[in-house]
Amino acid sequence: MQASSTRASTQGRRPRHSLGLDRLCLEAYQNGLEYLWDDFESKISNLLVESVDDSLVGVAITGSDQVQWITKHEELRTILQKGSSKLILLNRYNSWSRINIAIDSFSVVCQLSGLTPYFLQFMIGMGRKFSSKDEDFMSCYSTFSADGGLIGDPGSEIGTGGDARWALCYNIRYFEQHGRDMEDPWSCRQSALHHSFSPVSEQSIWVVIQPPQAFHVNMDSGRHVMSLHIRYLRGGLANWREYFDFFAQRFNILIAIPNPYHKFKIKFSHEQHLHNLRGKLRHAQNILANTRHTFKTIREHGSALAHWKGLLPADHAGFNRELDNLSQEVEGYIGTAHKLIRMSDDLKSMYENILTFHGQELQHDTSLKLTQLVQADAIENRDMAVLADLTYKDSRTMRIATVIAMFYLPANLVMSFFSSTLVWFGTTTDAAENQGSKLQIRSEVWMATVAAIVLAAATIGWSWWWNFKEQRTTKKKKASHKQP
Question: Quick check: helix, strand or coil at residue 52?
């Protein structure tokens, strides 16, 4: 009752031809997967193309190698209603674009292919993107549904109705060359597959989104009802060997030829680049581990379906043998990934050692330069000490000269003023002696002497007062700067 009301509440947001979407919504709510439907419905504008002209769905029918590409949903409905097994191909322009199917055509696919709500889990990750995100999710879902879409146990009695079906859906991630002029020529891509098998009509309907380029599209009826899975998985594994060889070549360039230490021009950017390569290897390792789990689910689903359908043991053994071959291939790729990661660990250790040695060399060179600077500073200090000693001697000489000048200049000034009247050289006449020349000094010469002494004392006093004033002004400025 709750599922019916919920479906009615969302009916206004559906296209005119929405029987398939209604069925998928009802089945999701009946099985407790309404969160998948709600998430899908909220993102549907970024998942499917809006224009019918951009919609292009490929359909391959049993016994034909030709793929019919259909735009209109009416024509798609007509082809899908034919009674034979079919392969439906949904493509994308690139890994960040929408799926090339309009909502009307997708509703037809939902109605006639028996899509389960679990498949929405993979479609949600295939919408339009503007940056790398949701790059790790991988899973595989095996279901058996009876009348009304309820998922049940394939061994129970509810599987006798006309609408009972087996369903298996999963996604794979693989690597293909993108063809752009970039350092890394590989891109990680995603594909999803849904396989629905009707026990009544014994017909299969396959829905594949963005199949690998190595996937050979045809609907040759094999002995096992799940034989197409083998070709699909083989297409996803086609490039792993070449992809890992790309990493091996990148690593061999760095370690193939032993070089002297000084020829390794290693910088921090090289370690960052190695970190990027290690991240890609671990991502590939995670993809292979999830692929191994997918193989396990496919094997269990195939065994249950073979037992229920009563397939010949030889046919089922052949399917398991092919699956074992692919599983061994995956195990080998996982071992290669482990080897490359260990090689990257060795490279990382070598890079760290080289960078450490570079750091030690820089530290040693810095120490030498610091030692040279200290030596130069010591020489400079010694020269400064010599200059200070010479300056002290010159200062002492200047002080002596200054003291002499302080006494000499005032005396010279006074004597130059009084010299013409206090002291002279003239002739004298004495009766007892002969007439001659003689130095004569007046008795007032003491006035010149006193004037010279007073003027010298005044000069010294004025100099002392001026120096004292300057020192006091300097102390006041320092005290004002110390106050907060």
Answer: helix
pTM: 0.72
Query: Strand (E) positions, 118-164?
Result: 140-145
Q: Which of 178, 191, 204, 176 is nearest to 85 (CA)?
A: 204
Those residues with Cβ within 8 angstroms of residue 456's Cβ, 6 or more apart along the chain or in another chain: 406, 407, 410, 411
Q: Is 404 inside a domain boundary?
A: no
Under 8 Å CB-to-CB from 387, ≥6 apart: which residues? none
Write the CA distances from 337 to 138, 277, 332, 342, integer angstroms. Answer: 19, 12, 9, 9
pLDDT tens per residue, the chain (484 residues)? Answer: 444 444 444 444 455 557 889 999 999 999 999 999 999 999 999 999 988 888 999 999 887 778 899 999 999 999 998 878 899 999 998 888 899 999 999 999 999 988 999 999 999 988 887 777 778 899 999 998 766 455 554 444 333 445 678 999 999 999 999 888 888 899 999 999 999 998 888 889 999 999 999 998 776 656 778 889 999 999 999 999 999 999 988 887 666 556 666 666 666 667 778 888 889 999 999 999 999 999 999 999 988 888 777 667 777 788 899 999 999 999 999 999 999 999 888 888 877 777 787 788 888 899 999 999 999 999 999 999 888 888 877 777 777 777 677 666 776 766 666 655 666 666 655 545 555 566 666 666 677 777 778 877 877 777 778 777 777 877 777 777 666 5
Residue in this structure with the two tokens 């200047």, named with its chain if needed: 398
3-state percent helix, strand, coil for the chain, nearest multiple of 5: 60, 15, 25
Q: Which residue type occupies 349?
A: S
Is 190 a domain residue? yes
Residue 142 lies in domain: 2-238
Residue 98 lies in a domain: yes
Transcribe 396-415 into DSSP letters: HHHHHHHHHHHHHHHHHHHH
Secondary structure (3-state) at 436: strand
* CB within 8 Å of 166: residues ≥ 6 apart: 143, 144, 154, 196, 197, 199, 301, 305, 308
> Which amino acid appears at position 239 of this protein?
N
Distance spanning both ends of the chain, measured CA to CA: 81
Q: Please choose, from the candidates 65, 59, 82, 58, the residue with its C-alpha nearest in 3D space to the C-alpha of residue 220.
A: 65
If one counts the domains in the chain, the total is 1
CA atoms of 441 and 438, how far apart (whole Å): 10
Q: Is residue 6 part of a domain?
A: yes
Closest to 232 in 3D by CA, of 254, 214, 248, 219: 214
